[in-house]
Amino acid sequence: MSSITGADRMAPDAAPGVDAGFVLLGRTLAATLGPSLSSVLSAVGMSGELLTDSATIVRRITALDDRHHDTGAAIMRDLVTSVTQQYGDGGATAAVLAMAMLRRARRATAAGANPVLVRRGLARGAEEAGAAIVRQARPVCSGAELAALATANCGDEELGATVGELIDFVGQDGAVAVSEVSGAGVWHDYLDGSRWTARPANRGVIGLGQCELTLIDPVVAIINETLDEPRRLTRLLEVVQAIPGRPPLLLIAPEITEAVQTMLAVNDRSGALINVPVVLTSARVHLAEDLDDLALLTGASVLGDQLGRSLTRVRESDLGRGRRVVLRRGDLTLRGGYASAAGIDARAAALRAHAAGLGAHHAAHERVWLRQARLTGQVAELLVGAPSDAEREPRVRLGKRLVRLLATAQGQGCVPGGGVALRDSAPAVRESARDCDHPDVRAGMAAVVDALDASLRQLIRNSGRIDPSPILLELERAGPGHGFDATTGHCTRMVEAGIVDLAGVQVGAVRAAAATAGLMISAEVIPCRN
Q1: What does CATH list as the number for 194-339?
Q2: Whole-number mean pLDDT of the chain?
Q3: Could you list the residue ranges forming a coiled coil in this record (predicted)?
């Protein structure tokens, strides 16, 4: 249980303890930065596991003995979690940056600087650094580049290559749905059309021994209410029977009772009207949205008494058409409809804007993004397996993280890796600080400048070099774009060596680190667990 008491104020005796917990967890995470794959041993009782991923480490370390240490670690945990959720990577980088910023900012406030103004300088410095990183970015154009980025990030060549291929296929506005599957491999499927979770209203809809049913040019009736009275469908059946060519009827509803199914089956077997009743199995909270999207794609109106469109007064103009519909026992795929392309594009654009407003870390973002991609037919499916159940879940999580990473790469490009883009953004921050009038704001910006080479320093240390100074001096003589290749132990031009980072991840990490360091130096009251 958490409480706020007078002892929790950021008094001189509380701040060092909070900082110590923040740094303690941060140093643990820093050991995982870079390609050396340093591990953290997580031990419980007589068992343990080696962890190399920052997001997994912060989930495992849930509490420290000292309550002030625990609070500092919780702040670090929140920083890493939020960066990883939003960008798919960058947690360890954000941790290293935040520790360096906090160290320099604490020195400034100890010397008498106003914490609020120092915090303002941290934010301004982070914005300048972010803009400088973006200026270094170059687009990621090919599937091969995307696959190389993914593989370098995760070390799983099969998964990285597949995700890179899928992201390249669906494009910047597309979506990749990730799910687990039995077996040890990785499979993928390019969805031809738009797909929803659905099932036939009864087993007889799809013939015995058949996997799917295909309808060509069906009439589509979409109903947002339970179909439980056969007589209420009389008008609908009459309208469809009067349509020239007697097309088949695809009837979509959230629930269809046995009585209605029997009536429809009698009509179908007698040849009066070929009909296919389908139950949409979307979660109830998403049902109305999915029915609306289906209606948009087919040109139909959603019917229902509560919507003011009663089945007893249905007209042909209330019905839609689909060029080709494929029904399987777990999903419904629409391949082309008769809807207005302008209407589809407008709704997709509105959904993209909504997703951008939510932010990638929001729980609803993935759902909103998938809707817009499904409307435009830009969806692929990634099926992830592993040799055992224990390995499958983390591999699925890794697949989802790679999808977010590569989507960020497509949108914002890549920059020289190994902390080089961060270091090369420092001159822009330094130049901006010269135009700042207030010394306390300049102190905050200086803290950002001081931190921008911390990631590079840590990478050099993680490669086994105790003192990074000689290598840093060599890189300074070599100029911008040059960094340290930890796998070879040599200085090189990072982009030419294929060592790159995602621009969006680096920008997000530096901004989040500055915000966290600013919070810690300016907070007056903090909650601690008793």
Answers
A1: 3.50.7.10
A2: 87
A3: none
